[in-house]
Amino acid sequence: MAEGKLVEVYFDGECPLCTREVDLLRRLDRRGRVQFTDIAAPDFITAVTPDEHADFMARIRGRLPDGTMLEGVEVFRRLYAAVGFGPLVAVTRAPGVAQLLDAGYRVFARNRLRLTGRCAPDGTCSVPRTKEA
């Protein structure tokens, strides 16, 4: 991770909803505290094993400067805290709210490809590991 960053987020650059949120975060990240890594980029795809790539595709991941890996709602908390929304993040940790957000994200993550229109006509929802040149 680049020096001075508070969190690195691994996002699916081919997911329309994901890229909209990343675009918003980039605009809000005026201090350059977030490092954005596109897991759909050819250089990322070739740098990891198929199982590792599948893990990254299954749910949002993040990494702290000390190398600690995060996943799920905690990544969003760290991202939004890094861009100045600390008070809002504190609310997401409240009992009941945290469990609701975690459950909602798990449902979204399981259905992300279908919800973002990335399933085949036969109903299969998988992301190819390699990209066409």
In short:
The protein has 6 helices and 4 strands, in the order E-H-E-H-H-E-E-H-H-H.
Keywords:
four-stranded mixed sheet, 47% helix, alpha+beta, single chain, globular
Can you tell me the overall shape?
globular
Total beta strands: 4
Strand coverage percent: 5-15%
> Which consecutive residue ranges, at least 5 long each, have pLDDT under 50?
none
Helix content: 40-55%
**Main beta sheet, described?**
4 strands, mixed
> What Rg, in angstroms, do the CA atoms define?
15 Å
Q: Report how far the terminal alpha carbons are from each other.
A: 27 Å
Count of spatially separate domains: 1
Structural class by secondary-structure content: alpha+beta
Structure characterization notes:
The protein has 133 residues and is α+β, with helices and mostly antiparallel strands. Helix content is 47%, strand content 12%. The chain has helices at 16-28, 42-45, 50-58, 73-82, 86-92, 97-115; strands at 7-11, 34-38, 61-63, 69-71. The radius of gyration is 15 Å and the shape is globular. 17% of the residues are buried. The model has no long low-confidence stretch (mean pLDDT 89).
